[in-house]
Design goal:
The radius of gyration is 27 Å and the shape is elongated. The strands form four sheets. It has a two-stranded antiparallel ribbon. A two-stranded antiparallel sheet has the order 3-4. The protein has 21 helices and eight strands. The N terminus is likely disordered. About 70% of the residues lie in helices and about 5% in strands. The longest helix has about 35 residues.
């Protein structure tokens, strides 16, 4: 243990501190990114606010206008919405992907970004809004069609709110909880923000001109930074207690730039490629290098969680995005443990692949899995049991995810040559069984802990809520599989297939209740989108299991005839 601490943990800690100190300070002309703003119940840097705002409107955290042009950072885009709103209305800024809506607005279906003039000044826009209002009056769950209309409505209000200065709250006052927006600023504060606006216009104008001398550009950058710092100092004097988290603001900008989870899955990708080569070639060398990349990814994973806990001041499992990231972490953790015990190589391979897969899903679907650092709702802050319950349930999903990955690998070997790879299939089956055992060992107490929280929050231990019901179904499903394996009803192929198929119960409890059913007391976790991708994922795996089964039975029949 001391060797591990000295050789791994301490050097990584020292490196992270040095790296952070080198990247914590704003670059020239970048102080605007660090300006604290109040949004969504917390204080965040303008950098985060701008990225989240642009993503809601444009679908991405950077803006690319014409094809081939350079990407523009979010803080410049969102800030200039206030300075030149009429210019932005003419840009292809607003993302719309729903084909039925595009048809009603008489817009081309081969595009997904449109100008404000095309969307909001269309005679059919008012009709869409009326449709949405009529649907809301029915108090029924919004279908994907109406959810898409609601997003357009949100885009309209966000752009209007930002261009009018009402959405950007940047100045704290002692007498009220809410900070003053740009449109509410008066006297000295108003003059301070006007100075920022003037310097932003000057800076961007000079930056757009390739012929601008370097000294002139440097002067413009310094003026902009000085005006931002002067405004920040003025705001801090106004209400020091509400402006005290300047270091946390710097840390959040660093977190935004660093993307620890993205670096983590790149490390897992390299580890997976190395392990695939070792496993296929049946090599004894190369494991040290594979372990090194797994360790790097794992440490980056931990850093990512540490950042989110520090910034949000809560456990990192409060929304769907965070549970996916937490599950990927758990899958890697359990694979490390099983690999150390069994030394099959495939354990570490499956863990790296599942960690990679889950992190890519979390990173590539921000519209569905919201990565923003939002404070917990009141019901989620109620007591200690909720935190333990959610973390326990989700870590059980991680074990089942690992079993699912191992099952997939095992079925590939079944499909390729079941006889030739008999020993490998046997080892993989052991991994699937152990992963299921670990999952059940966490899911069962997780459900009980959820009941304790439910009794505390709602006055009943169990109410057959859809979330509760499907968690129980998942538990019973895996218990049946474990029992069938224990008594000999399931052999190697059956266990592998069960590891893949039974994971669909977890998908339903984890994703389906929140994003498909959208009913029950767990309404804080509901979302929309991605159903078609999940359905495709599930369907392809059912087909893969069926294909493997046909090959398995065919070989079995052939072997019987041969004997």
């Amino acid at each position: 243990m001391m060797y591990f601490l000295k050789k791994v943990v301490f050097p990584v800690f020292v490196f992270s501190q040095v790296f952070f100190s080198l990247n914590a300070n704003a670059g020239r002309g970048e102080q605007i990114r660090y300006l604290p703003v109040q949004d969504a119940g917390r204080i965040k840097p303008f950098d985060t606010f701008a990225k989240e705002t642009l993503e809601l409107v444009y679908g991405k955290k950077t803006y690319v206008g014409k094809e081939g042009s350079r990407a523009i950072q979010a803080h410049w885009v969102v800030l200039t919405w206030m300075l030149a709103p009429e210019s932005w209305v003419k840009q292809a800024l607003f993302e719309v992907k729903h084909h039925e809506i595009l048809e009603k607005l008489k817009l081309p279906k081969d595009k997904k970004h449109f100008t404000g003039e095309e969307l909001f000044r269309s005679e059919n826009f008012a009709n869409l809004m009326q449709e949405l209002q009529n649907k809301r009056e029915t108090k029924e769950k919004l279908t994907p069609y109406f959810q898409a209309i609601q997003r357009i409505e949100n885009q309209f209000f966000i752009f209007q709110g930002m261009s009018s200065g009402q959405l950007l709250r940047i100045y704290p006052v002692a007498a009220q909880e809410a900070w003053l927006s740009v449109s509410e600023l008066q006297s000295e504060a108003q003059m301070g923000f006007l100075e920022i606006s003037k310097n932003v216009a000057l800076y961007l104008g000079l930056k757009s001109d390739a012929a601008t001398p370097a000294d002139e550009m440097k002067t413009a950058e310094d003026k902009l930074d000085q005006s931002v710092l002067a405004f920040a100092e003025l705001a801090k004097k106004s209400e020091p207690l509400k402006y005290q988290d300047s270091e946390k603001v710097k840390t959040e900008v660093f977190y935004n730039d660093f993307h620890p989870f993205r670096w983590a899955y790149l490390a897992y990708l390299v580890a997976s490629l190395i392990l695939i080569f070792i496993w296929i070639r049946n090599l004894n060398s190369g494991m040290t290098l594979a372990w090194a990349f797994v360790a790097i990814g794992f440490i980056l994973h931990i850093f990512g969680f540490a950042f989110r806990v520090y910034l949000a001041e809560r456990p990192p499992v409060s929304n769907m995005y965070e549970t996916v990231v937490w599950a990927s972490f758990g899958a890697v953790l359990f694979s490390i443990i099983l690999e150390l015990v069994y030394k099959f190589k495939v354990m570490l391979l499956a863990g790296s692949l599942m960690g990679l897969f889950a992190l890519i899903v979390a990173d590539s679907a921000p519209a569905i899995l919201d990565p923003s650092l939002q404070p917990l709702e009141a019901v989620l802050r109620s007591n200690y049991w909720l935190i333990v319950h959610v973390m326990t349930i989700t870590i059980s999903y991680a074990a089942f995810l690992l079993g699912f990955g191992l099952g997939d690998i095992g079925l590939i070997y079944v499909a390729v040559d079941e006889v030739k790879h008999e020993e490998k299939i046997k080892n993989i089956t052991t991994g699937v069984y152990r992963a299921m055992q670990i999952g059940v060992a966490f899911l069962a107490p997780g459900i009980i802990l959820g009941g304790i929280w439910a009794d505390y929050s709602w006055g009943r231990f169990w109410g057959w809520d859809p979330k509760e019901t499907w968690a129980l179904i998942a538990l019973l499903g895996y218990i049946i599989v474990l029992h069938a394996r224990l008594v000999g009803w399931l052999k190697n192929f059956g266990t592998l297939a069960a590891g893949v198929i039974t994971f669909n119960l977890v998908i339903m409890a984890w994703y389906g209740v929140n994003f498909v059913l959208g009913a029950g007391l767990h309404s804080y976790g509901f979302g929309a989108g991605g159903v078609e991708y999940v359905a495709l994922f599930v369907g392809l795996h059912f087909l893969f299991v069926a294909y493997s089964y046909i090959i398995h039975m065919s070989r079995k029949s052939t072997n019987k005839k041969a004997t």
